[in-house]
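Troubleshooting: if your tokenizer reports a length mismatch, compare your output against this known-good record of 79 residues.
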Amino acid sequence: MIEAVLEQPKSDNRFGGPKMISQLRIYTVNKGMTDQWVKHFTEVLVPLQEKYGIKIGGMWVNEDKNQFIWTRSFADAED
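Known-good structure output:
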């Protein structure tokens, strides 16, 4: 897994919304299992994340590299 944590500076809220921490996550999925992973992610893991106030920003599949890429955001590091 490759993970990048992007935190908006506390002193600069130039986007006009609440300050959030966002993560870009890149997972390598076993060959031939991407469809199963996407189904599991959308049916099980997305509702679980949302239950705890974590917002899913987007999901993508890079089929050439068997990668599942997604972003999530939450209020602060304590979440």
